[in-house]
Amino acid sequence: MKTNKLVRGAVVAALYAILTLTLPAYGALQFRLSEILTLLAYFDPFYVVPLTIGCAIANIASPFGIVDVIFGSLASFLALTSMSKTKNIYLASIWPAFFSFIIGLEIMFLSTEPVNFLLVTGQIMLSEFVVVTIIGVPVMKYLMRNEYVERLVTQV
Asked: What stretch of H or E contains 8?
C-alpha cells in the first residue's frame, strides 16, 4: 500500500472517530455528523475499511462497549460496502439508515430499560436519513464540484 493511501485512510478514520466522540452520537437519536463521511465510500470503495475502523474506534466510548464496537462496526461495514456498490448517490445514501436495524436490535437487547424495537430503530433510521441523505448528499455534491477535493477523494 502506498504511503499516501495509508495516510488518507488514517486521516479519514481519525476524522470519523473524532467527530463522533466530540459531538453527541450515542443513543436512540444519534445525529452523528461524522456519518456524512460515509459518502466517501460511494465515491471510492477504498474508504470502506478506514471508515469501519473509525467507527470501531468511536464505538469504544459507547455505553454498550465492545458489543457496539462489533455490531455497530458491522452495521457500518455493511452500509459502506453497499454504498460502494450503488451507482446512484441518493440510493447509496439510504444504506446507513437501512442497516440501522442492527443498532436497534443492539439497543433493544442491551438496554436496562424495556425498549420498543420499532420506535428505537425508526429514530435511528430517521437520524441516519437526515444526516446522510438530507444533509450529507448536498454537502458532498457541492464539495465534489471542486476539482481539488474531487482529486483528493478519488485518487487514493
From this structure: helix 3-22
| pLDDT higher than 70, residue 84 | yes
Whether the pTM exceeds 0.85: the reply is yes
Nearest to 20 by CA among 46, 51, 59: 59
Q: Tell me, what's the pLDDT at 25?
A: 60
Q: Which three cell numbers stand for residue 35?
A: 456519518
Find all residues with CB under 8 Å of 143, minimum gap 6, and list them.
149
- Do 80 and 52 meet the contact criterion of CB atoms below 8 Å apart? yes
Q: Which domains does the chain have, with CATH numbers?
A: 3-154 (1.10.1760)
Higher-confidence position of 146 and 30: 146
**Dihedral sign for Cα atoms in the order 42, 44, 48, 54:** negative
Q: Is 27 left (phi over 0), alpha (psi -120 to 50) or beta?
A: left
pLDDT digits (tens, 9 = 90+) for 95-148: 999 999 999 999 999 988 898 999 999 999 999 999 999 999 999 999 999 999
- The whole-angstrom separation of Cα 62 and Cα 43 is 28
Report the C-alpha dihedral over residues 7, 55, 77, 53, rounded to 10 degrees: 40
